[in-house]
Amino acid sequence: MSILALLPPLPPFLFSALVVSGLASKALHIALHIRSLPFLYFVLYSPTLILPDVLVIICVRVLLRFHAPEGRWQWLSTALGGALSLITWGASSIQFGFFMQTGAEVAWAAGGSFLSDPAAMKILLSGISTVSAAATVLGLVAWLIHSHVYNLTGLGLQAIRDLCVGSYRARYTLIASPKQSCMASLDLRSLRRIIPAVAITVSLVFLEISRPSIPYDHLSGALPLTLLEAFNKKTATVEGCREPVVPFPELKSSHRLFQPDGAFVEQWSRASWLPENPPAGFSRWDTSPHDRAEKDNHFSFVCGSDEGGFFNPKSDPLKISNLGGEIYEPLQKAFKEHSVEVNHVVLLTLESGRKELFPAQQGTPLFDGLLASHKKQNVEEAIDRLVTMTPTAQQLTGEYAIDSKGNKVDLSNSTWENPTPEGMGGLNVRGAMTGSSLTFKSILGSHCGVHPLPVDLLEESQLEIYQPCLPQIFDLFNMGKEQPEQPKGNHSQAARSTSEAVKNPWKSVFMQSITDDYDRQDVLNENMGFTHKVVKSDLQSSHSKYKAKGKEINYFGYAETELQPYVRDLFEEAANNKTRMFLSHVTSTTHHPWSTPDDFKKEPYMSDQGSINHDLMNNYLNAARFVDIWLGDIMNMLQETGISNETLVVVVGDHGQAFGEDNKDMTGTYENGHISNFRVPLVFHHPQMPRVDITANATALSIIPTILDLLVESNSLDERDSEIASALLPEYQGQSLLRPFLSTVEESPHHGNHPPPPPPPPERDVSQPEARSHPDGPPKRSVWNMGLINAGGSMLSVTTAGMPYRLILPLKEEFEYTFTHLGEDPGETHLTKAWTLPELIKEVKPKHGEETAIWLEDAEKVGKWWVTEQKRIWGYREA
């Protein structure tokens, strides 16, 4: 028998593929949300959920069976029906493939941006195996039942036609007969057939009209119609008029427009420290808004308001400043003794850098999950292997792990041996959260001190960043300084005095071993002020000084170690030339698919216990160890070039990375609000700074204020630059971590220029709820931390620094409200979900009390206000 004989006729098979793929996709779509749907309402409205799919099926069935007098129309009809079938088959395969990889569903609205980005296409193609498997299964099922589906549907349509039309061809004469009505021609049998059909139709129409739009409009979406969302490409444009709007008036009514210390720069008058032609990033201090509008006819920023449209700290109701507080006492002593010298800054951004792995140690939900994969008799061995995984992180943070015997871990085999004495090393923050689980939006917080824009992907690259970024600040410092001369000998900068070093200009360099083409990162880097960079294209160029020697390890590029000669050259230049260095380096090995170089020996951190496959987590852990070794190499190079004692090393994670060990329902960061995607390390390491452990729910917004505060307090700037830094410091939304972090402040009617109240003890455990102020006393205002969930425009994580509650706020109708109590459920294993806030409060209030209900109402108001305000500040509108 020929193989061709086994192949089904093409139209029936294509139709069967559409039916199987469309209904399977709808079943998956509903199943992902079934737990948050009230059962009775779901049963009542379920016919309307499948109605669009039925209409698509009928339409395609008619197209595939269409007969026309002229053959070309029949071919066109068949081709159109076949194309819709193939599109539905492919889209459903992608949905199932994506679900098998992440546990989430595809958001087609963001698909257009991925398809137009060559680097993003590599991410999509990385899941081609699961998509192919899903397509094969759907195709096989369609092949097995194609004849039955095609024929039964045809018979059904024939019955509907007969029911609606009857034998009109025999009654066409009635149309011309005024003596006999149409109803009179219908016999009792016809009425019995028509009445149920009419009743069903009326019922469906009534249910369609009466059902709640949320979530049923989203759940009723049918392939291939939902694919049209991918073509609704929204782009960022400069808003011509940025009228300040406060859709949350309660913030004003209770004295929440609080000016912490009166040190703000006047918004629209030219600052005395600003040179005639400042670098990019300082336009809001450059001239008055009207002068700026005349200077740049492209847009005007002001709409009849004196405040203008840029960010203004004086009118930010969520800003809390701690600049009125004293610097930590150990740091004060070090600064007075002039033992802290900061001539260089290295900012290391760890891709998918989870705090639980920086360093890995016992007592976290993740560590317990890792041990659960091992048999009981092997647990001690597993503990000893895991706690030695990230020795560099232990030394940078001062958080030394304990082995299975309760002893401090032996780090003698570490690639970097920290020479810093006990009790020294700088600031280590426990409780830090990222501002976005999308890498480049997160980088905006650490490099520019700004909140990201709550839209999908990096639309910020097309707009003006509303605060100066670190390279732009250093460029401003450079104005008026002499350029470095070439050294006549190998004289280390370490030998020069601080007074000499502060006169030297800064050089800002960006390095990563992967491409910078993905999602317009190259444009963003340029907008942030980086003029020197080393990226994948430089490692591949035939003109590069050090061409990459190894193979690419993932779809983005090479391992970080390919940058080693470039990093060493930069450190030597900083040591030997009269320059001050700012290096920004983003690691990438800990990004999916967590591959490491072939010569890197992997460790078996995970075993086979449990119901999930632990291979992905094991790959991630080995990638984390590889990056930890690389960080040790960087610290060694600082020591070898003699500049370690004058270099501030800042380490921060861009976001975390959720796995099945954290949450069996969803993995990855895409549209996944799990807490494991938000807890990140934050360290300010300096060998001459005393060790200060800080427990605070801070974010990367604190990085620039802390660096500026440190440069000023350590006398690492000359008089002019110190004036600039002091003026800029209170302009940023984050707090300086040289001073105790303020989770809340008490309002005062006389809030003009008075400093904030004394800070709480730094060792306070902010994971526990903070007592509310007395009803008759002044109201309290909290630090609200916002975190955008990858890809940025769908969900928002809302927390307050002094409370253990967390709300995932949907920004689109197809997502749910989610509440967790991090004090009771730090690993977020028991989520409370609902489609509306009242429904969520109804679920949460009996379990956690009235205070939680009040917090949820405030969180929604503040979150929605924040979304609107960020779009205004960024000058963003959707075109």
Automatic annotation (TrEMBL):
Q: Where is this region: Disordered?
A: 745-783
Keywords of the record, alphabetical order, are: Membrane, Transmembrane, Transmembrane helix
Ranges where the Sulfatase N-terminal domain occurs: 518-711
InterPro entries, per database record: Alkaline_phosphatase_core_sf, GAG_Ulvan_Degrading_Sulfatases, Sulfatase_N
Basic and acidic residues bias locations: 762-779
Q: Where are the transmembrane segments?
A: 40-64, 76-99, 119-145
Q: What is this protein called?
A: Sulfatase N-terminal domain-containing protein
Q: What is the lineage of its organism?
A: Eukaryota, Fungi, Dikarya, Ascomycota, Pezizomycotina
